[in-house]
Task: structure prediction
Amino acid sequence: MFDRHPGLIVRCSGAADVIDAVNLARERDLLVAVRGGGHGIAGQCTYDEAMMIDLSAMRGVWVNPAERLVRVQGGATWGDVDREAQVFGLAVPGGVVSTTGVAGLTLGGGLGWLHRRYGLTCDNLVAAEIVTADGMLLRASETEHPELFWALRGGGGNFGVVTAFEFRAHPVGPVVMYGAAMYAASDAEEILPAWRAWTAGLPDEVTSRAMFWSMPASPLLPPQVHNRDVFITGAVYAGPADDGATILRPISEFGTPLADLSGPKPFRDVQRLLDWMFPKGQSLSYWKSVNVRELGDDVLDVVLRKGLDRPHPGTLVHVPQMGGAVQRPGIHDTAFGDRSAAYIVSIDGNWTDAADTEANVRWVRDAFNEVNDLPSAGGTYLNFSADLDSASGQSAFGDNLDRLARIKREFDPENRFRLNNNIRPTDAGS
Result:
């Protein structure tokens, strides 16, 4: 969606290169964009005539199985992490597409298939190495620069360039029980309420999501869903696969599915199942999301209407389930703003013809506004939002915004890192 041309690209191989780049930007007053895994749909990693600090060559992953810690460089993707961690039967809660960048997902929160059992990605961060605007390389943790560490867990890319993350890992796999049923979209009026009722009683080991989508005639898919509009119910059981078989069985029993893809699968394969639907560089995208405290009938009505009237086959109306371990930390324990949501309604516009951009963006915004105006709406998820103005920034960070602005003033007083969902530093007298 973005055809932008940086004035300079610094292709970093380590923290020393990042330090040099940040120092040059400060000395020459250069606008700075930061590229991690390159998966973000908001286009914030590139800007005309800016310096792009490109971390995409920094993809190293090191696993300490004895302490269940995983160290990850700032340009790595979740596929890189899963490949190394699964050698030891471990996983860090990450995204649902393996090409997603570790950095962007972590700094904005981090939803995936494990968040109800083990929390958000940012909840599993134990330390980060970051180059701040003054060119210093700092280690942030609970005991080292704790305010900066607090801000990195959900505050976005506002505070510097993270060159390395250290995560707590958990025993997962190598095989997990996966549930996925594709129903005719026209049956969703019955299927969606049944899925809602089922998710209300799930143990934390289960993370589920439902979505409207359209299936192409791909050899990767069963023929019976080719060129069909579908409603998908999916889930992963983060425990022994045999235990999950019974718990996930209802996924395929809400009605008569067109296709049932459920069964035990290697966790790495589950993490890659959606990759082919999000090919890099081949879609124009604009997403917006709304947190909802409950999935009431008014929310279902909007989800159904918009799901059945999507402007392009690639567009999703996506409802991830929240709760569980996501809600255990206090609202001020990390910078991640709203933990009260039971679900998220994400309107994920994806299309292919630039001539359709205006109409698709308008449709996403209209759908977002309909959900956001409902009584149960309460905030937005940073990583599922293409743009944030000041009002939606407050919605994303909630009561944490003032504290984030003070930390921003300490570590980036000139707002050098502003090509992001930006938090402006408070005035010195505030």
Notes: The chain is about 25% helix and 25% strand. The mean pLDDT is 93. The first strand starts at residue 8 and ends at 11.
